[in-house]
Amino acid sequence: MESLITTTLLLAAIAAPALAQPKAEEHSAHHPASAAAASADMADGEVRKVDKGSAKITIKHAEIKSLDMPPMTMVFQVKELALLDKVKAGDKVRFVAEKTATGYVVTMIEATN
Ligand SMILES: [Cu+2]
Q1: Which of 23, 52, 80, 108 is the most buried (most CB within 10 A)?
Q2: If you measure from the C-alpha of residue 59 to the centroid of ligand 1, how many angstroms do you get, rounded to a whole number?
């Protein structure tokens, strides 16, 4: 019994870093550490609607790992209204979102068209 537990723990210890590692290594290989840290939270998406009147943007986004969110289309608030001048409906974008008390807020966005 004890050897089974030992084996299970050993496998878990080997498997966990093996799953987490490759992407991080690959990434830091072509970017300075600070850039890698910043882009790690970036999510890909496509703008569906820009609503300057209510400072909101609808984005069809891919998985957002930092927010533990699966792909979906949703409305985000924006940190600064000026962010909405940088993109328009139909643009492919990369963006950073944060979860706040009032909901999800885009803090950075750039078109990748
Ligand atoms: Cu979402």
Answers
A1: 108
A2: 8
Tell me, in angstroms, the distance from the centre of ligand 1 to residue 68's CA: 9
pLDDT digits (tens, 9 = 90+) for 5-59: 565 555 555 555 554 444 544 454 454 444 444 556 899 999 999 999 999 999 9
**Residue holding tokens 């970017």?**
31
Tell me, in angstroms, the distance from the centre of ligand 1 to residue 77's CA. 12
